[in-house]
Write a structure and sequence with these properties.
Layout (H helix, E strand, L loop, with lengths): L2 H28 L2 H31 L4 H22 L8 H25 L7 H12 L4
Length: 145
């Protein structure tokens, strides 16, 4: 993982975990142990699904840049489906508070997307690889016309 990629991941993970910590604290005071577990699971699910998606998207951008936009759309669809499957599978559980889980999941997802967007806007990522331009100039500089 390049430093830009790690920085983008870090810029999204830190605010999401901060929101998760706030959700855990509020749910501990307001509703007790099962609510805390719901808040923790909601935060962990967002960090795992969205983090894995960001890593996959960055790898796709490096290896197959022509598929980047399509892969991004497919990735967000798969992420939504994964979260939906998890929510449907545990909708009637008594293991954790499902309302706290849902609100934490929603809040953490929105914070992740906002932080990731801000990180991309602030990142100074080159759109053109300067190495390839220098190589091309070096190859054509000495060639006879």
């Amino acid at each position: 993982m390049q430093s830009n990629d790690a920085r983008l991941l870090l810029h999204a993970v830190v605010p999401t975990l901060a929101l998760g910590a706030i959700a855990v604290a509020v749910s501990a005071v307001a509703a007790g142990g099962t609510a805390v577990l719901g808040a923790v699971l909601g935060t962990v699910l967002v960090v795992l699904v969205m983090g894995a998606g960001l890593v996959v998207l960055q790898q796709t951008a490096k290896k197959l840049p022509q598929l980047f936009q399509m892969m991004g759309l497919l990735l967000y669809t798969v992420q939504i489906l994964l979260v939906a499957v998890f929510v449907i599978a545990f909708k009637d559980t008594t293991l954790f508070d499902t309302k706290v889980f849902a609100f934490t999941l929603l809040g953490a997802t929105l914070v992740w997307i906002a932080a990731q967007t801000r990180g991309h806007m602030k990142a100074k990522i080159l759109y053109v690889n300067p190495d390839s331009a220098e190589t091309k100039n070096a190859e054509t500089a000495g060639s006879p016309t």
